[in-house]
Amino acid sequence: MGATGEETTPPEPKIPAAVPHGRMDSPAISRAVDEVRQIVESLEQALEQMEEVRELVELADRQKSADEREIETLRRALRKIQPPRGHRDAPHEPGSD
Does 89 map to a domain? Predict the structure, then answer.
């Protein structure tokens, strides 16, 4: 109880008031905002570069697959014209005609 006999309530915790608009434009805050903008721009550029690299990797993968198919086709064609090396020099077995 207080000195006057009335019950006192504990003081309410102080809640910081909103920062006045004039203080929002302080040099430190402006620098921080500029730095954040630069970071965002840098990240956007990095993302664009990563997307370009991804596209190049996908293109290289498609080209690799096409090259592998072409090599296999050429190998099959070569086998038709020329048997593998081991088969040509093999001795002829009697009765295999």
Answer: no
In sequence order, what DSSP letters do the residues of 50-73 get, joined into one string? HHHHHHHHHHHHHHHHHHHHHHHH
> Length of the chain in residues, anyone?
97
- Specify the number of domains making up the chain: 1
| Grouped pLDDT means (10 residues each) for the chain, 97 residues | 56 55 75 98 98 98 98 94 69 54
Give the domain extent around 39: 25-83
Task: Indicate whether this model's pTM tops 0.90.
Answer: no
For 2, residues 6+ apart whose C-beta sits below 8 A from its C-beta are 8
